[in-house]
Structure formats: structure tokens, C-alpha cells
Amino acid sequence: MGWTIRDAAAEDLGAILALERELFPEDAWPEEVVRAELAHPAGRYLAAVDAGGRVVGYAGLRVAGDQGDIQTIAVAAGFRRRGIARGMLVELLGEARRRRAADVLLEVRADNAGAIALYESLGFARIAVRPRYYPGGVDAVVMRLAPIPRRLPAPAVAGRRAPLVLGIETSCDETGIGIVRGDRLLANAIASSMAAHARYGGVVPEVAARAHLEALGPTLDRALAEAGVALDELDAIAVTNGPGLAGALMVGVAAAKALAVALGKPLYAVNHLVGHVGVDVLADEPLPMPTVALLVSGGHTSLLLVRDLVEDVELLGETLDDAAGEAFDKVARLLGLPYPGGPQIDLAAAAGDPSAIRFPRGLTRPKDLERHRHDFSFSGLKTAVARHVEALEDAGEPVPVADVAASFREAVADVLVSKAVAACTGLGIPRLLLGGGVSANARIRALAEERCAAAGIALRVPPLPLCTDNGAMIAALGAQLVVAGRAPSGLAFGADSTLPATVVQG
Ligand code: KG4
Ligand code: ZN
């Protein structure tokens, strides 16, 4: 049933050739040509594989100068009409755009109406005909897509327009109300109670819950005005019901239920963590599945394996103690920097030497890796920084804030990125999505880019306003549940502060 798309490798040569010969008996490409194409640096080849790992489709792109060319796109007979060709094409068009191609060309048999319709639905136009180009005297239609849209259309939902969904997020200190139409962002209104927590050096649950109560009404009004929609136009309402702070979650859940009942709209309870992954559709073309996601914020540090956003999310690992953002906030406090500490450390670190002090990398020793390959721990690191600072103070020496900040930041970035990249390579998944407020960190971004590029992993980092906690991510995930035909959650659900990542819909 299921299928996934991944990069084709030299090992796939035999399977691709067999499929090529089966599908194009009269004009199959010779082995040397396919081998060369697979390895060519100016292109990218994808393989679609079924649940058993068998290659059931392949597609290739070449970019020469500023022109992209879809070299081939083929799907085995029993696997057509499942969106595989479309999925591969969307991925290759994204690749062409990343390689700065101005347009993309392809050729298709004039008698292949299904393929022509698919290409037209993605924006390709017919520009020429090559008479009797294919065996049997069939013409080739040359099609061109220009420019390559930044946002490629999502898979069509038969007979339905994309749902208009309102999302409510109150799991931590951000009151977020977002509105989307399908995968299009219409509004992302946010009110943060961060300033109210500053003097405590961290989020105070009671203060956060009270702030949500006050901010919800005005934030809702702002979102509706920003999107230019009225409440009765909505197709559905989605709300975070966990994980997060219990009191804070309850405010959002109660508000969402009240709205749903008053308006007579279907209500979807959704998982906050999965929302961080689902938000990506608002910024980019659909992320091919499966993908690995690293979510790092003040409240979570989780590594997820997402095989299917609405039904198959696995928690690979998470922090055993502090969240990464919490570690940044606590270390900032040790260094006398204000809350929230992440951005402050990031700034201070820019002037420091990351190799000045070798701070520990939690759970990276071979013995730890046996049981905690995908888990994180930052409490040892935090203690090591505290000891280091205390020792200097006791000796009456000045604390080199920039060097400590840079060395600490390096340790966090190193552990986060190494574990995420190891998960991708270990699982054979060449895609990584970063999310959460800590992904704003300059060093984490740079190191992730560098190591993902070296390991052949495609890295996605949504724009920052969509990375930090927000309502649009909840609306986006809600819309994806609606499109997938999921039944609404009803009114019986409650806030669940420890909702596991595997439960996409609460
Ligand atoms: O996602 P977010 O806005 O809210 C939570 O769910 O917590 O993340 C906030 C966290 C805070 O701990 C903050 O210190 C951290 O993200 N943060 C950073 C940076 N910007 C924000 N941490 C490291 N470097 C940054 N540039
Ligand atoms: Zn979050």
C-alpha cells in the first residue's frame, strides 16, 4: 500500500534498469547511460519504493545553466494513480528551484493524457511538438514550467476546496491564533507573555495561563482581521490539547470548545509537537515522507520519525532532563544575561572562541549510545558551565562571557546536529526538518547546514515565526487532518500535558 520517495543510489541501478526495460521495451536507456545519470552532480535522481523497499518508480532531473530538464519519470504499472509521479515531480521541481533553474522542460508522449494533465496541473504549458519522436510514430509534446513557483500546489483533493481552518495554541507562553486555507497561511497572530516571566528566569505556569485568558479574545480578533474572514466562514477549528503546561492548555481547549459549539463547527484536537512538523507545508512544497524532525525549544527537545504526518509519527528520542532552550536560559542566567537567554547567548557567542573550553556532550559516549542513541541530556552540560564559572569566580578571575557562551553553544549545537544527522543516516532518510524556537540559533543552523550538506541530507528550516510556538501550525495540522478525511475529535477530549508525540489527533 504505502510508498515513499528517496534519493536513488548506485545500488538501485539494477532495479531501475529492470523497470526501465519493462516500461519502455523499445527505447529503454542503456545501462551506462542510467549509471552515469544516477551519479551526475548536475542532477538528482529519485526512487519511489514500496513498503517492502522495492523500487516501483524513478524520476530524474538535470540542470544545465539555468535550465532544468526532467529526464525521465516512470512508475510501475500496479502503482499508478497514487500520487507517486506527482510526489517525485514536486520534489524535483523544488530541487530545480534550489539549483536556481529559471525554468523546467520535459517531453511526454502525446498519447499519455494522464501525464499531460498532471504536468498541466502543476503549471506546465505545451510549447512544442516533436513529430514521431517515440517508437511507433508517437509525437512528443514538449512542456515548460516557468518560472518555477515558490509554492507548488498541494495534491488536489477531489471535489473539495481547501478547508478554512482556525488554529488555537496555548501550550506554553505564546497565545497563538492562526488561520489557513489548506496549506496557505492567511493569519498568524501571536501574543506572548514572555515579558511577564522575565523576572522569574523561566515560564511560570500560573502566570502563563492567566495571560492566555486575557490575550485570547484580542488575538482572535487580530487573526480574523488579518485573514479577512468571518468566524462563520470557517470549515473547522483546531486546538493544541498537549503536550504543554496543563493550565495553559486548558484555556485554549475551553475556548476552542466554546467557539465550536457556538458556531456549530467541527473541532480537531491536535498534538503540539506534530504541529511543529506540519507547519512546513505553509512555507514550502510538501515535504516528502518519511522525514526526521528535530524539535528544539524552551519546552522540548525531541527527535521524531515522521512516516505520515496524520497517522504515523514515532518518537525516536527526547531529552531526559532539561530542554535545549531551558539549558540556554539557565546558562544565560549563570552568565548574568537576561531572559530569554537563547538569543543573548547567541549574540555573546559571536565574539567568543567555541574551542576555548571543551564542555561535555551529553549521551554521546559509546556506552550511552547503546540505550540512548536518540536521546539528549543537558543537565551535565549546565552543571559543567556552572562549575567552570564558579571556579573562576572563586579564584577572583574575570569570567570570559563570550568564550563560555561560544563553547556552551558549540556543545549544544554539536550534540543536537550529530544526533539528528546520525538518525537520518542510520535510518536511511535523507531529510531533516528543524523546528522550535531554538532553531533560531545561528550556530545550530550553520552546523546543521554544513553537516547535512556533507551527508547528502536535505535540510528544511521553516521561517522563524513559524518555528516558534504559533497558532498557524495548529491550523495547518488541523487542515491536513480535514483533508485526510479524519473525523472531528468531538467535545469529550481534555488537555493532556504529557500527550505522546505518536498521538497526532487527541
Ligand atoms: O519555541 P519557543 O518560542 O517556545 C517554547 O516552546 O519554549 O522557544 C523559546 C526558547 C527559549 O528557551 C529561548 O531561549 C530559545 O527558544 N531561543 C534560542 C534562540 N532564540 C530563542 N536559543 C538559542 N539560540 C537562539 N538564538
Ligand atoms: Zn513548541
Could you give the topology of this structure?
Elements (H helix, E strand, L loop, with lengths): L2 E5 L5 H11 L7 H9 L3 E8 L4 E10 L2 E9 L8 H15 L4 E7 L3 H9 L3 E10 L3 E8 L18 E6 L4 E8 L2 E9 L1 H4 L7 H23 L8 E7 L3 H18 L3 E5 H7 L12 E6 L4 E8 L3 E7 L5 H11 L6 H9 L16 H7 L6 H16 L6 H27 L3 E5 L6 H14 L2 E3 L3 H4 L3 H13 L23
Parallel strand pairs: 4-5, 8-11, 11-12, 13-16, 16-17
Antiparallel strand pairs: 1-2, 2-3, 3-4, 5-7, 6-7, 8-9, 9-10, 13-14, 14-15
The chain binds 5'-O-[(R)-(carboxyoxy)(hydroxy)phosphoryl]adenosine and zinc ion.
Explain this structure:
- A seven-stranded mixed beta sheet has the order 1-2-3-4-5-7-6, with helices on both faces.
- The chain has helices at residues 13-23, 31-39, 84-98, 113-121, 194-197, 205-227, 246-263, 272-278, 324-334, 341-349, 366-372, 379-394, 401-427, 442-455, 464-467, 471-483, and strands spanning 3-7, 43-50, 55-64, 67-75, 103-109, 125-134, 138-145, 164-169, 174-181, 184-192, 236-242, 267-271, 291-296, 301-308, 312-318, 431-435, 458-460.
- A hairpin with a 2-residue loop joins strand 3 and strand 4 (67-75).
- It is an alpha/beta fold and 506 residues long.
- The protein has 16 helices and 17 strands.
- It has three domains: 3-145, Aminopeptidase; 164-279 and 469-483, 2-Layer Sandwich (Nucleotidyltransferase, domain 5); 287-461, Nucleotidyltransferase, domain 5 (2-Layer Sandwich), CATH 3.30.420.40.
- Helix 9 (324-334) packs antiparallel against helix 13 (401-427) and helix 13 packs parallel to helix 14 (442-455).
- Helices cover 39% and strands 24% of the residues.
- It binds 5'-O-[(R)-(carboxyoxy)(hydroxy)phosphoryl]adenosine and zinc ion (ZN).
- 5'-O-[(R)-(carboxyoxy)(hydroxy)phosphoryl]adenosine binds next to helix 9 and helix 10.
